[in-house]
Amino acid sequence: MTIIGIAGGTGSGKTTVVREIVKALPEHYVAVIPQDSYYNDTTGMTVEERRAINFDHPDAFDWKLLIKHVSDLREGRAVEQPTYSYLVSNRLPETIHVEPKPVIIIEGIMALINKRLRDMMDIKIFVDADADERLIRNITRDTQERGRTVEMVVDRYRAVLKPMHDQFIEPTKRFADIIIPDGGENTIGINMVCKYIRQIVAEE
To answer: Distance (Å, rounded) from C-alpha 173 to C-alpha 113?
Structure first.
C-alpha cells in the first residue's frame, strides 16, 4: 500500500491533482480520504458557536479519528468515513464506507501538519498557488456551494484564511517531497507526479 499526503492552501488545486492521480491509476485502485470530512463533531454546540469555528486552525480537526482510520486502512481494515456539512457546520448522520486500496490519498489544507499522520505517508505533496488565484477560487466555490456572499468570503479571507495560511499551511511546504507550483494549472508537474506514482505502485 502507498499512502500519499496532498496539502496546500484552500483553492490551490488539490482536488485537481487528486483527480488526475486517480485517473492515472487503474480503476478502483485509489481510496481518497478528504481531511474536510474529519472536522470535529460539534453536536453539543449552539449554532452561534458552530459559526464561530475557525476551520483553518489545526484544532478544528479530529486528528485522533483521522489517524486511526488511516492506520486501519493500512492494516487492511475498512473504515466508516464521516461526512461533514459546511451549511450546518457539523457532521451528518451518514458515513462513507471506505475499503483498503493499493493507494490511499489523504487530501486537505493541513494534511502535512501532524507528525504522526505525516510519518505514515510514503509520498508528501504540496500544491502551491498564487494567493490571488486562491482567493478567486474561494469566492467562486463558497458563493456557489456554501451559501456565502462575496463580501463574507473576502472578510473571512482577510481575518482568518490568510493569517492561518501563513501561520499553519505555508510552513508545511518544507515537509513535502514534491511541490507542484501553479496548482491544478501545472499539467506538466501533475503528469510527472502521476508517472512517478505509477512507477512506485508497479514496483510493489
So the answer is: 9
In 8-117, the DSSP E strands lie at 30-34, 79-85, 90-98, 103-107
Q: How crowded is the C-beta side of 120, counted as CA atoms within 13 Å?
A: 23
- Report the pLDDT value the prediction gives residue 13, as an integer from 0 to 100: 85
DSSP states of 56-79: TSGGGB-HHHHHHHHHHHHTT--E
**pLDDT tens-digit map of 10-54:** 878 888 889 888 988 888 899 999 999 999 988 888 888 887 888
Question: For the packed helices 187-203 and 14-24, what is the interaxial angle rounded to 10 degrees?
Answer: 40
**Cell triple for 198:** 505509477
What is the pTM assigned to this prediction?
0.86
State the pLDDT at residue 142. 74
Contact of 119 with 105, CB cutoff 8 Å:
no
Question: In which region does residue 61 sit, left (phi positive, over 0), alpha (psi from -120 to 50) or beta (all else)?
Answer: beta
